[in-house]
Amino acid sequence: MIDLNKLYLADCLELMKDIDDNSIDLILSDIPYGISYDKWDVIHNNKNVALLGRSKAQLKAGNIFKARGKPLNGWSEDDKKIPLEYYIWCCSWAKDWLRVLKPGASSFVFAGRRMAHRCISAFEDCGFIFKDMLAWNKNKAAHRAQRISCVFGRREDEANCEKWDGWKVGNLRPIFEPILWFMKPYKIGGTLTDNLLDNNVGAWNENVFKKYGQMPNNLISIAGNKNDTGLHPTQKPLSLMKLLIELTTLPNQIVLDPFAGSGTTLVGAKELGRKYIGIEKKDEYYNVASNRINRIEHTLFFNCEST
Ligand SMILES: C[S@@+](CC[C@H](N)C(=O)[O-])C[C@H]1O[C@@H](n2cnc3c(N)ncnc32)[C@H](O)[C@@H]1O
After folding, report:
1. Would you say the CB of residue 13 lies under 6 angstroms from ligand 1?
2. Is 285 in the pocket of ligand 1 (CB under 6 A)?
3. How far away, in angstroms, is 249 Cα from ligand 1 center?
4. Using CA atoms, how far apart are residues 222 and 237, in angstroms rounded to an integer?
5. Distance separating alpha carbons of residues 235 and 292, to the nearest angstrom
6. Cβ neighbours of residue 248 under 8 Å, at least 6 residues apart?
7. Domains of the chain with CATH codes
8. Which residue puts its alpha carbon closest to atom 26 of ligand 1?
9. pTM of the shown model
10. Site to substitute for ligand 1 among 236, 259, 264, 283, most atoms within 8 A of C-beta
11. Which residues in 229-267 are b (16+ Cβ under 10 Å) and which e?
12. What would the pLDDT profile of 149-182 be if each residue is shown by its tens digit?
């Protein structure tokens, strides 16, 4: 059995096997999106150099994208396999998530817009109920779509420059991220109310929305503040993680984050009086997360001592 209130430096695909069946009240995790955002996010075997390289524009933009997530031109057979490889990877651990959760317990998964459908299929095929997709409105997002009239302008093609005025190539501003909400099925023939009495999970708390200044619907608008950046390239706002923790768990229940990064989920759980288990495989982020968690422990201790 794994210790509670501990962050492990490990590969979660291995360590999850040591967690007891039906022991966890919530899994909240921001998983690798499989879009080649960083080395830890390359979940495929495609060795295409165009795919993992960086274009001139990306080099100029600095470290926003460390590797190209899409090939330069068209899609090779290897490129087309990337979504399927991501699905297979999700299946390789989702079955352990199902095993360790209590019946009726929730899992919130941050998965990117491009691959979320593969993650949903993997979870369903491993036995989860796909309950809902929440939209996290980030309020701001970097936008790099190219203005096509500028390209014609550089070619001194005035006619096309005018014809294509206002047109862009690339994506719309990515202002929302999906949060997938899954539930572990509960006893056949039982009701959710029976399950709540047996396992203390399966319902959500409407009052939490008011506490975080939100309407009780599936659009959550929380912008990060200056404390929510600089520790990890995909760091999530602490108050967003706290809202999701409070939405489906009671104090002292156990929250697990197998892809912990800088530990935002664990910090939220600790501050809310929940127990936590975290797993992170990169030393760098394990150290960042450990320091964050220790700082809370010291703050709580200091506050108790001075009262
Ligand atoms: C999307 S980031 C999480 C960021 C986090 N939400 C935060 O606020 O800092 C995913 C993390 O999972 C880690 N990771 C990837 N594969 C892993 C594995 N097999 N076991 C444990 N951690 C892994 C990566 O190193 C990365 O830090």
Report:
1. yes
2. yes
3. 23
4. 8
5. 13
6. 25, 26, 105, 106, 201, 203, 204, 205
7. 6-138+176-305 (3.40.50.150), 141-174 (no CATH)
8. 261
9. 0.92
10. 259
11. eebbbbbbbbbbbbbbbbbbbeeebbbbbbbbbbbbbbb
12. 999 999 999 999 999 999 998 889 999 999 999 9
Phi, psi of 273 (to 5 degrees): 75, 25
pLDDT digits 0-9 by tens, 196-215: 999 999 999 999 999 999 99
pLDDT, tens digit (0-9, with 9 covering 90-100), for 221-231: 999 999 999 99
Give the tokens for residue 227.
Answer: 């404390």
Mean pLDDT of the chain: 91
**214-221: average pLDDT:** 97
List Cα–Cα distances, 232 to 14, 227, 241, in angstroms: 23, 11, 15
Distance 169 CA to ligand 1 centre (A): 31
- Under 8 Å between Cβ of 7 and 283: no
Distance spanning both ends of the chain, measured CA to CA: 36
Query: Which among 62, 122, 57, 60 has a CA at the least distance from the CA of 96?
Result: 122
| Interatomic CA distance for residues 71 and 55, integer angstroms | 10
The residue whose CA has the least distance to atom 2 of ligand 1 is 261
Bridge partners of 29, per DSSP, are: 109
